Queue: 3 jobs
Job 1
Amino acid sequence: MYRIIEARDVGFKIRQFTIEAPRIARKQRPGQFVIVRLRERGERIPLTIKSSDPSAGTVTLAVQAVGKTTSLLNCLEAGDCILDIVGPLGHPSAIKRYGTVAVVAGSVGTAMALPTAKALKDADNHVIFIEGARTREMVVFEDEIRAASSETYIMTDDGSYGESGLVTKKLKELLDSGRAINFVLAVGPVPMMRAVAQLTTPLGIQTVVSLNSIMVDGTGMCGGCRVLIGNQSKFACVDGPEFDAAEVNFDVLMQRNAMYRDKECASLKQFEADKAKELAQLRAELAAKEDELARLRAELADEEGRND
């Protein structure tokens, strides 16, 4: 059981959680993620590790409500618990001195890009951070972005904040102006990452994308997160999540991500029709689990006392 220390809204349908997870906090590196399960028979979902505090024993996760499980998670408050968190998972980002780097992130993808951007800046890179969102209310973590980068650009599809247009518009403007960009990291929706790759690959710019394919166990055993990289099957959970953008088959990735969309939509619709009941049931299940754990701890303590 993992207790939520703080929960707050940070954008439209985006919520930030600080959670007690000391072992994960000690091990986490930029680019890694966790898999969360809310209930015994619940869905397992991969979530970004936005940051960690080893001294406090906490990790911070950013969650966008897009399906039933993320919507239910975003109903939880400080004091509530999460049943299971497994991690940190995946390979950390490759941090070295590239020169000038561009970090391109879409909305909640900003959370995963932030620790890598900070580490790249700490490695003496000139970091250009381009965040994109559909509208102003979906722009997140702006102050942290500015602290983690040397230059910051905010792009909104509707022009309601920052500059109007897609993140690729700003990236192309920088490249067309003659800026030498040595490395690009793109994190966010698959169409955005594909568009970045289409822009940078012909120019020979080393570009890495963080893939958000469907995951179940996070160990490579289920095969759910299979991706096609350079005509070879890889697993995003154990081989990634970051891959060379020039080698990613984005068409296959998008097809696999859409496999369960109808079922996901039906599940979300059912949840929204009875949200209060679902939340009450989850809290009751977690309370029962806490009571069970307390009983087991008491039994263990009694047994140890008898052995002494």
Job 2
Amino acid sequence: MEELINKITQTGIIPVVKIDNSEDAVPLAEALKNGGLACAEITFRTAAAEAAIRKISEKYSDFFIGAGTVLSCEQADAAMNAGASFIVSPGLNPDVVKYCNQKGYPIIPGVCTPSEVEAAISLGLTYLKFFPAEAAGGVKMIKAMAAPYTKVRFMPTGGVCVNNLADYLNCKAVYACGGSWMVPADKITGGNFDEIEQLTRQAVELLKEIRA
């Protein structure tokens, strides 16, 4: 898990992808790689997620893939068998977390309250997703929760964009951010991969400025 978190932290931004057609997976991965982010969280919001993860992992061995919106043990198995490196969920389901722990699947569950943070800690997890970030209070809420839980770190997702990325990444309790602004679903469906590459490149440049 430590190696995974180090990789996510170094990457800084994880594109959160909703993909409707697995045929778009490889062109999307290529656009992200060309833009400077060889990573993505492919969400299980559509039936194409498993096939998309498999196609990217088979085409690009160096591409770092997370499986998002994983709500069941069955989806966790499908994602990891397809080539995902880690699991992300919008909330904290103890059954899914325990299953992933037993199987050795790295999992980053979502939390947005102190009670959920404590539940995660009780399951041995201190690196969590904060979701939905903006709706749940944004940076102020993260700082408030981080005060008593000093060993917990958060990956805010939901409403993160170019306008607030610096605020999140400059928070000591944040190790990375998840965002979908560089991978709009309509751009993927429309095959506008050049635009996705450009949006990704802009995100990477912004990340460099923030971390300079």
Job 3
Amino acid sequence: MSPEQYVQEKAAASGSSFYYAFLFLPPPRRAAITAFYAFCREVDDVVDETQDAGVAATKLAWWRKEVASAFAGQPSHPVMKALMPHTASHDIRLEHLNAVIEGCEMDLQQTRYLDFPGLQRYCHLVAGVVGEVASGIFGRTRPQTVDYAHKLGLAMQLTNIIRDVGDDARRGRIYLPVNELQQFGVKASEILLRSKPWGYSDRFTALMKFQAERAHQLYDEALALLPEVDRAAQKPGLMMANIYRALLVEIERENFQVLHQRIALTPLRKLWIAMKTNWRGR
């Protein structure tokens, strides 16, 4: 299997909303974003699929060395072999990849965030930087497009956090800020129980509505930052934004029943949203 086939299979197997946006890119850009996304999946899977934190830390340390070796001209992993031909043309830098690894390392080091500014630091590493790299691959001409990409990454990561409250609780993690749990009178133990109906309450619903309103506001702020001159090039990002926002609306319709299940859009619906965004350009 070639490196290009490896990253293609890695991206397709994830079933991610990102994959549907990639389909509309010209082949060179699609190859670049597919390789970069496969890298993100590889390091994220280290944390999600490795039960021993010590082993996961060792694997992430290996990825740091692999990234350094790849930028020194000696990639060994198929993901890095597929990615390196695109780094210069799309300004993908060593520090970008190390930031993604650092974000995954945070998952090993802490399971709570005291406040939203602390959570923002994590989101910057695992989503904001990813958005910056992706916007460069899609094509941008204005510095303001980087600001748009970072804010959109934050909005999408908050949507992930809302969707995955139950899955994260199963791993002993709560990304909802501690001071906001206290603000709405929700105990961590109620979330960690996960089971229906014990974790659900009017307090929990109010907490989740607060999270969703903030995510919606960030989507609006991000879209307002996107320069018109870069809108056509950034259509794949807009596809992802529309898919994620549709997911957020679906979670709201389900009254935030996210502790005992993982609410998701069907592949057909994701594809339809991507196609509609491609036609409309927004």
